[in-house]
Amino acid sequence: MRIAILSRNPNLYSTQRLVDAGIKRHHQVDVIDTMHCYMDITSARPSVRYKGKKLPYYDAIIPRIGASVSFYGTAVVRQFEMMGTYSINESVAISRSRDKLRSLQLLSRKGIGMPRTGFAHHPDKIDDLIKNVGGAPVVIKLLEGTQGIGVVLADTQKAAESIIEAFMGLNASILVQEYIKEAGGADIRCLVVGGKVVAAMKRQAAPGEFRSNLHRGGSASLVRLSPAERKTAIDAAKTMGLNCCGVDILRSNHGPVVMEVNSSPGLEGIETATHKDVAGMIIEFIEKSAKPNKTQTRGKG
């Protein structure tokens, strides 16, 4: 098969692992910088151009699109889809998961566990917004934040009100969520591929930190999932429509709750913690799911 990995950095661990896994299984694998793609949008012969040439018709693509380039990145994925290329995650599913508010509303509609959450752009009574999620301490999140950036823990009512007022002064949209104290600064990252949890790790926040992101100094270790946690991760991935994703779960007193569904999960932490060939599993899933692209004759223009 001919596979393209849409990644801005070919030297990233996740990108390299996917390339190596694809080559190991005898596929041709190209890495394409999403932001350097440009599109020829026509009804007869849609194409993607790159560095002055028309890209070939790939059998499959693996989008590795960062949150900061979601709009253009998903447009490129849609263009490949128009060309008959199989995408492990469809553009609409990526967009759905990147919208934090929309994703939480979808999870809520399906009855999937999640922290009590409030959303406001300009509430008349900030104290009521805080009260509705259970009162302080609360977690305040910018809708556009990633990797723990734009996430603040407010210990008291006054602190929460001040932070919310500050964010609103910047015309920012925010989420206010209950703080799951019993999680102890730890969450569980479940890697879901093809409707199955293929690997899971526990991420523990660094001392003095409540955010467990590995980018913020958190540590990773093996974890055994309960049936409820496994089902929650699978249901969350299905709700988002993602074939490959990371589902972040907290262990609360009222069962597992989903914090986020990530359509481009990093592989380094989870492969290191579990010693599993997750990249190989992703390529294997593509082999089972993608069909040869016979839309048009291949070849560079």
Compact overview of the structure:
By secondary structure, this protein is α+β, with helices and mostly antiparallel strands.
Structure commentary:
The chain is built from nine helices and 16 strands. With 301 residues, it is an alpha+beta fold. It has three domains: 2-89 and 285-289, Rossmann fold; 117-179, 2-Layer Sandwich (Dna Ligase, domain 1), CATH 3.30.1490.20; 182-262, ATP-grasp fold, B domain (D-amino Acid Aminotransferase, Chain A, domain 1, 2-Layer Sandwich). A hairpin with a 6-residue loop joins strand 3 and strand 4. Mean pLDDT is 90; it is low at 297-301. ATP binds at residues 141, 178-179, 187, 211-213. Its cofactor is Mn(2+); Mg(2+). This is Probable alpha-L-glutamate ligase.
What name does CATH use for the topology of the largest domain? Rossmann fold
Q: Would you tell me the overall average pLDDT? A: 90
In the residues, how many domains can be counted?
3
Overall spatial form: globular
Counting DSSP H or I runs of 4 or more residues, the number of helices is 9
**Structural class estimated from helices and strands:** alpha+beta
CATH architecture of the largest domain: 3-Layer(aba) Sandwich
Helical content class: 25-40%
Strand content: 25-35%
Through-space gap between termini: 20 Å
Unreliable stretches (pLDDT < 50, length at least 5) are 297-301
Count of distinct strands: 16
Q: Rg from C-alpha positions?
A: 20 Å
Supply the CATH class of the largest domain: Alpha Beta
Give me the side-by-side strand order of the main sheet: 14-13-12-15-16
Main beta sheet: strand number and arrangement? 5 strands, antiparallel
List the helices and strands in order.
Answer: EHEEEEEHEHHEHEEHEEEEHEEHH
Keywords: ATP-binding, Ligase, Magnesium, Manganese, Metal-binding, Nucleotide-binding, Protein biosynthesis, Ribonucleoprotein, Ribosomal protein
Protein name: Probable alpha-L-glutamate ligase
Organism: Alteromonas aestuariivivens
EC number: 6.3.2.-
